[in-house]
Design goal:
Belongs to the Maf family. YhdE subfamily. Its cofactor is a divalent metal cation. InterPro entries: ITPase-like_fam, Maf-like. By secondary structure, the protein is an alpha/beta fold. It has one domain: Maf protein (Alpha-Beta Complex), CATH 3.90.950. The protein has helices at residues 18-26, 50-63, 93-103, 138-148, 162-166, 175-179, 183-192; strands at 10-13, 31-33, 71-82, 85-87, 107-117, 122-133, 168-172. Strand 1, helix 1 and strand 2 (31-33) form a beta-alpha-beta unit. It is elongated.
């Protein structure tokens, strides 16, 4: 293990997202998965970076009573932010198509809030990535939605899927953040934990 400072900790990822699990595995870290079912609600007055940090903390709070002394809990929440509002996970085909139509030909931000917590210590942080989409036709949008069914993805898209290859022309920031886990930043914080 590269991160010798974590040898005395058992890592716990509070996420059922297969993407987050794979990205954390790619850091060559061993961890248990302990998903938390939580209504991802937040106070309306929160801003762009505060929203995912608030939800990541709420996920941690929901599991805090189950945390053992030697466990380090990792929680995360990712949002898509466009025109001063959150584009969450679409509930229907029509909502997914509407979201992608809104993202077409424009720029938006993807923000992941993260929380690292033991019984004795807590670190919260976030990562922001700027994403630019080319104009997409209605046919391209409906093709993507019907084939990939992006109902578990903020903003109704996965950058690692077909739409990322054909429609995203530029990003500034972490690619992996757009997938749901800013692994570079997470690694830096884990090194210092």
């Amino acid at each position: 293990m590269m991160l010798k400072n974590l040898e005395n900790y058992k890592l716990v990822l509070a996420s059922k997202s297969p993407r987050r699990q794979q990205l954390l595995r790619n850091l060559e870290l061993e961890f248990d998965v302990r998903p938390v079912d939580l209504d991802e609600v937040y106070p309306e007055e929160l801003g762009m970076t505060a929203i995912p940090e608030y939800v990541a903390q709420a996920k941690a709070d929901a599991l805090l009573d189950t945390l053992q002394e030697n466990e380090l809990l990792i929680t995360a929440d990712t949002i898509v932010w466009k025109d001063e509002k959150v584009l969450g996970k679409p509930k229907t085909r029509d909502e997914a198509i509407r979201m992608l139509s809104e993202l077409s030909g424009s720029q938006h931000q993807v923000i992941t809030g993260m929380n690292l917590q033991t019984r004795a210590k807590k670190i919260s942080f976030h990562a922001v990535t700027e994403v630019w989409f080319d104009e997409m036709s209605e046919e391209e949008i409906t093709y993507y939605v019907d084939k990939y069914k992006p109902y578990d993805k903020a903003g109704a898209y996965g950058i690692q899927e077909w739409i990322g290859y054909v429609a995203i022309n530029k990003i500034e920031g972490s690619f992996y953040n757009v997938m749901g886990l800013p692994v570079h930043k997470l690694y830096q914080y884990l090194k210092e934990f």
